Amino acid sequence: MVTRRNFLTGAGTGALALGAGVVSRIAAAAIPEAALQSSAATQAPLSPPNGRPYNPVVTLNGWTLPWRMKDGWKEFHLVAEPVVREIAPGMQANLWGYNGQSPGPTIEAVEGDKVRIFVTNKLPEHTTIHWHGQRLANGMDGVGGLTQSHIKPGQTYVYEFQLRRAGTFMYHPHADEMVQMAMGMMGFFVVHPKDPKLMRVDRDFCFLLNAYDIDPGAYTPKVNTMLDFNLWTWNSRAFPGIDPLVVRTNDRVRIRVGNLTMTNHPIHLHGHEFEVTGTDGGWVPKSARWPEVTTDIAVGQMRAVEFIANEPGDWAFHCHKSHHTMNAMGHSVPTMIGVEQRDLADRIGKLLPDYMAMGSKGMADMGEMEMPLPDNTLPMMTGQGPFGAMEMGGMFSTVKVRDDVSPGDYKDPGWFKHPPGTVAQRWDAPAPAAVQAPANPSSNTANPTLLNLKRGGTRHEH
Fold first, then answer.
1. Which of 154, 103, 102 is nearest to 125 (CA)?
2. DSSP one-letter string for 439-452
């Protein structure tokens, strides 16, 4: 639920700053209140109550930041602060974010809008905000020490700029960046075209790729990790905590994905082909697009993909790096495939009654095991579908295409009801007879020229 609270009350003794100047308490009182979101569920799109019209986005497991209009400016208020984020049911993390969540709320506006964004710092250290991909005055770019002074704890700064082009952008700190981004400080910034009919789609989703290294039983990420993350998330959620993307059959669907992790992610959609229609540099001309089912999103990049949802069903949508669809991975766990463990398990079980041998035949059993876990962690493979264990985690969700979904309805419709005869099933009859492969005409036995060469003959070129 979105509520409002005034973060200026008791914000500390630091000076409140507008640009480079200090303002009085009277001026500070004019700052809009900051909206707060506590739910990790996907919120309904925020239809614009004023200003230019646009077709709003849906932030997966997130929300859009409300604003107010004042003297022709669209005013937002972001609060950088420690937050508690549910990664998935059964696990929470102590993160840093904005307005109660990590990632922060999506900012939506229209090309040509003048935006004024107040940023209040409730972190234990200084911060800034960089508007990733935006064209703006150099002093509004948000690089601490280079383009502005740092926002100290208790201070509020304001950023003012006009949105010069439509597209999908991000925001994140450029101050103690390794720590603050590893703690979850980031958000989406969507700038809609002036013409709401331009690049129009029926459903428009967005989310950020992020990753954490949190030991089982711990709550706070290791900020010095560079590669060996154990939680791969979309908008700081891991499967089965990631909501499905619900669409109506034959909807034109756009999915905007931004990558602020430390590695690339090949994002793959089942059952449909899509085109990449946008990057953080802008829209891709139609003449430069081609059909794909997977697009690789590198560090710091954004990709918008579009497709017609014309195949009903529950279609997997995930990162195609297999270890990114798992949770709480133990990178030092040895491979035990082919190792007989029964005698060893009996002996260890006398010392550790809950010990379970696993991995000698692969890891599939872990998808159904009810094994003890440390507090505040997730199974490495989890999730139950209509046919049993799904053996997934991390960066995984589903696109649920249905005939009976109403416009504007994003509720989970449940599992797909397959028409009779359309589900793969066990074959109990005798297996088909093996088919003899035809002789290869280019093999040595059928090629007189090659046979002659092998016998010492000479090949003549004509």
1. 154
2. P-TTSGGG-HHHHH
Within 13 Å and on the Cβ side, how many CA atoms surround 97? 25
| CB contact at 8 A, 173 and 129 | yes
- What pLDDT is attached to residue 21? 35
Tokens of 208: 């950020």
Q: Encoding tokens for residue 356? A: 């379970």
Q: What single letter denotes the amino acid at residue 138?
A: N
Total residues belonging to the chain: 462
pLDDT tens for 111-163 read 999 999 999 999 999 999 999 999 999 999 999 999 999 999 999 999 999 99
**Per the structure block, which two tokens stand in for 109?**
């506006």
Query: Sorting pLDDT into bands at 50, 70 and 90, what band is 6?
Result: very low
- Name the 3-class secondary structure at 28: helix
pLDDT in tens, 401-435: 999 999 999 999 999 999 999 999 999 999 888 88
Closest Cα to residue 143, out of 188, 116, 176? 176
| Structure-block tokens of residue 395 | 């960066």
Report how far residue 108's alpha carbon sits from residue 302's, in angstroms, rounded to the nearest whole number.
Answer: 16
**Tokens found for residue 59:** 């932030």
The pLDDT score that the predictor gives to residue 25 is: 56
Whole-structure pTM value: 0.84
DSSP string for residues in 78-109:
EEEEEEEEEEETTEEEEEEEETTBSS-PBEEE
Give counts: helices (H), strands (E), the chain: 4, 28
The dihedrals phi and psi of 88, each to the nearest 5 degrees, come to -165, 160
Strands 68-70 and 73-88: antiparallel
Tell how far CA 454 is from the center of its chain.
Answer: 59
pLDDT in tens, 163-192: 999 999 999 999 999 999 999 999 999 999
Q: For the structural domain made of 2-194, what CATH number should be given?
A: 2.60.40.420
Nearest to 371 by CA among 384, 355, 359: 355
Q: Tell me which residue has tokens 């154990």.
A: 230
Nearest one of 302, 293, 267, 295 to 395, comparing CA atoms = 267
Look up residue 51 and give its two tokens: 């200003």
